[in-house]
Design a protein that fits this description.
The protein is α/β, with parallel strands linked by helices. About 40% of the residues lie in helices and about 15% in strands. Strands 3-2-1-4-5-6-7 form a 7-stranded parallel sheet, sandwiched between helices. A 6-stranded parallel sheet has the order 10-9-8-11-12-13, with helices on both faces. The longest helix has 25 residues, at about 175-200. The radius of gyration is 21 Å and the shape is globular.
């Protein structure tokens, strides 16, 4: 390679899904000789450095005085917010969705000067932002920038598709407009505030009911083609779909070494936030312990508050891409990164969504027939285990998933994403 470029990645502060997506692409760029710098929130300081990348640290909010350095703020978020996850998505707009947007909008404003300082320090040739929020600082780099959507593609609105974050079906429009109206009512003033700040620093406003804008250079989104949505108006030529972006740098993990036996292997992960709902996690663990199946559990930082059953293994953090190829079924919160990894490795899935686009992803599993969506808190043991056993016994589904996975792996998204970023950095 003759032209070494500086490529900056700015994943969603504090979110592992977008971070892992960026890491998969960044590994390819480093192998090609480019300089990669991650812009990370203080809560992630050291995480990317430990993976061999440069880091620059920003904050979304001022540090709290007298804060307990050992306390996990996300654990407190789950403790306070978990009761809201039981509500219908239209009711979550006010109690879950809007507070998240408020924090992100405030964070974009608070971090603005620091991010601008980072650009002056590292002089990026291109910036890749994997954020649901449009940070004006990204658009003011003076260099090309690329938007990455590692979330359900309903985020790119289409009037003939369900509203994003609703979890509503594609074949029944009866509740679409009510959801859109409530979403607009709750966020109209907040979006105006966001756009006022954007105008004050000289960037264009976001569209109605959206907190982000598209890049004029390139836009990427992460979602398997086999479950993508048919659009009335196709996305323009700046958009590129990546079926999956799976990290190849994870440590090996032998399932048979940790849980010997002949039973089918189930992987249970509710993501970096869902795993902190200890009561829900323990109920799932207890239900799965009633079977002869083997289970690997991603337990999260509250691991010591959970008790595994027989034929189970788990840990605080697990090398998920190393484990999934050895599994037969994935039980997931419906996070976009995990969903794409499930398709990458050909696993039928059960979605137990908690918030945000997890509902859209779980619904898409159900309506495309590649898995099932269950009520996250109101399932019975018979219902859960009946669904587990039905999906494990479906040989036709297994064959279709395997064929899909082969097609997905033949076009590795992390490599194609690296190609696009490299081209934008070189050619603009």
């Amino acid at each position: 390679m003759t032209d070494r470029q500086t490529i900056a990645f700015f994943p969603e502060p504090g979110a592992w899904g977008p971070t892992n997506n960026c890491v998969a692409i960044a590994n390819v760029l480093v192998e090609r000789g480019h300089r990669v710098v991650f812009v990370v929130d203080a809560s992630f300081e050291g995480e990317l450095e430990s993976r061999g990348f440069e880091e620059r640290v920003m904050r979304m909010a001022p540090p709290e005085e007298d804060a307990d350095p050992t306390a996990d703020p996300w654990a407190e978020f789950i403790r306070v917010t978990a009761p809201e996850f039981r509500k219908p998505t239209i009711e979550q707009i006010e109690t879950v969705t809007k507070p998240i947007w408020e924090a992100l909008v405030a964070g974009a404003r608070y971090s603005h000067e620091r991010i601008m300082e980072i650009w002056d320090d590292i002089h990026p040739d291109v910036v890749c932002t994997d954020n649901v929020t449009g940070y004006p600082a990204v658009e003011l780099t003076g260099k090309p920038w690329v938007r990455f959507v590692s979330a359900n593609p309903l985020e790119m609105r289409d009037r003939d598709l369900p509203p994003v974050l609703s979890g509503l079906p594609t074949d029944d429009r009866s509740e679409w407009q009510a959801f859109r109206d409530e979403y607009h009512r709750q966020h109209e003033d907040l979006l105006a505030e966001h756009n006022e700040f954007r105008a004050s620093v000289g960037v264009k406003p976001c569209p109605i009911d959206e907190f982000n804008t598209n890049s004029p250079w390139a836009n990427l989104y992460l979602f398997p083609e086999i479950v993508d949505y048919p659009r009335t108006t196709p996305l323009d030529a700046t958009w590129h779909r990546l079926n999956s972006t799976v990290r190849t740098s994870e440590l090996p993990y032998g399932v048979d070494e940790h849980v010997p036996g002949e039973g089918k292997v189930i992987y249970l992960s509710l993501g970096s936030l869902g795993c902190m709902d200890v009561a829900l996690m323990q109920r799932l663990i207890d239900a799965l312990a009633t079977t002869e199946h083997r289970t690997i559990v991603s337990m999260g930082p509250l691991k010591d508050q959970m008790t595994l059953g027989p034929n189970m293994a788990g840990d605080r953090f697990l090398p998920q891409p190393s484990i999934l190829p050895q599994c037969d079924l994935l039980i997931t919160h419906g996070g976009n990164n995990t969903l794409c990894e499930g398709f990458h490795f050909g696993l039928p899935m059960i979605g137990l969504p908690l918030f945000w686009d997890q509902y859209d992803n779980a619904q898409r599993l159900r309506e495309t027939g590649f898995g099932e969506r269950l009520p996250t808190y109101d399932w019975t043991v018979d219902e859960l285990m009946g669904t587990v056993n039905r999906l494990l016994a479906d040989s036709d589904l297994k064959a279709r998933m395997a064929a899909n996975a082969e097609t997905i792996r033949a076009d590795p998204g992390h490599v194609r994403g690296a190609d696009i970023l490299e081209r934008v950095a070189r050619e603009g």
